[in-house]
Amino acid sequence: MADYSILTRSFWTIERLSYVPLILLFVTGFFLGTAAHRMVFYISSPVLIYGLIYFVRQGSVLFQTKSALLIGAYLGYFLVSTLWSDPYDGYAVFRRMIDAVCILVFSASLANAAFYSKFTARSAILIAAICAVFSVAYCLYFYGVRDLTLDRRLLGMGRYENPIHLAGVLAMATLLLMSLKFTGDRRLQWQAALLGLIFFLVIFFSHTRSALVAIAGCFCVLMMMQSLRVSLFLLVGGGVAAVIGYFAWGQSFSELYERGDTFRLAIWSEAISRIVEAPLVGYGISTDPAFLSDSTPHSFKSTHNMILGHLYHGGGIGLLAYLGLIGHGFYVAFSSLWKHRGTHDGCKLDILRRFCLLSLVFSVIMGVFNFAHYMMGVHIQWLLFWVPISLAWYLEMEEKRLKSLSV
After folding, report:
1. If you write DSSP's letter for every residue of 165-204 in order, what string do you get?
2. What is the pTM assigned to this prediction?
3. DSSP symbol at 212
């Protein structure tokens, strides 16, 4: 019988109960608005905190890792940066403190859940299927009930006011499929191919160019990892999706180019001019910038670039905190893959090692064109950064466990 991770007889053990809130958070993220989604996390957080306390008392090495130190340094520094934010606001400090605690609880709980969970290729297919069901339902509503043309960008589709967020979710599901190592299971291959085709089509309709570029970058990484069978299998699916899209809705392709750089070059230029005025510590995490306020009808509050965003809000110190965190994640994921090369068997570790590395690559490439920082409350952007960072945290714990067993 297929193992779908949590669907076991011992469901109500503490190991299972500790990550049920994470599953609930994942599913409700598709249809609840940000405020309601945040309340789901707040209500379920006592269960997560209890699970963390329980496992630490049982000897978990969760907080005895470099990942824990670097995450704490990142959150701690940007929390302190509220002190020189403009304008300074005591409530803003409190709100950022809540954000930092939520991120820490989420990341630690996910790392812990990955450590104790059973995760198989079919679990990955199940997660991808959930993403596909919601994305197809949203598309049917967007183009059917709302009666919009297929060449229109997916603005305001479902709970996703920004199509970048939906594209990010589906891209991460695609990366999960790319992380599978198929071993001749034809049914699994067809399931992955169908889901991959759905994701490519919806991402195409979202007109999120950065997501397409980031997925292409992940394909390159996957090929360098010599997973040619998996990459070619999904590449064919992407090609079919592109051909269907071109002949059915060719105008959408031209619109990808007609949109130009969507003010990014101008935003980056203005951000750099401000960064040089506060290069060491930046302007603080609670400072809301207003880029291009004099030249466009609506100003922009984001630098649309992670490097510039961390420099603007945290200065050189903030950038080092970000680079240290992402660099350590890459080191853990790559070293774990390299150490266990040639022993891949489709197990949980095999899948999550690959997914961790690919999702980090995706996060970095997306960060070149989008967002400013990840010091925020419960948000869909957590999926694009804190999930791969949490998986790197888990891999570090796993390597410690394997090392202790070999002694």
Report:
1. HHHHHHHHHHHHHHT----S-HHHHHHHHHHHHHHHHHHH
2. 0.86
3. H
